[in-house]
Amino acid sequence: MIKRIGAAIVVTALAAMLSACLLSPGKFSSSLDMRSGGQFSFT
Q: Would you list the DSSP string of 15-42?
């Protein structure tokens, strides 16, 4: 019984952390530089 309650708490905490990441994600910036001859760089 105690293990089941603990597992439910862990699952609930993980779901809350995942939803927080989806609602307010961090900043992300990227750059794609394409040149003639098929060369490119992605940062």
A: HHHHHHHHHSPPP----EEE-TTS-EEE
Q: What residues form DSSP beta bridges with 13?
A: none
Q: What angle do CA 23, 9, 19 make, to 5 degrees?
A: 5
- Tokens 């394409």 sit at which residue? 34
Distance CA(9)–CA(15), nearest Å, equals: 10
Q: Give the pLDDT band of residue 8 (cuts 50, 70, 90).
A: very high
Question: How far is Cα 5 from Cα 13, in angstroms, rounded to an integer?
Answer: 12
Does the pTM surpass 0.85? The reply is no
Q: Is the pLDDT of residue 22 over 70?
A: no
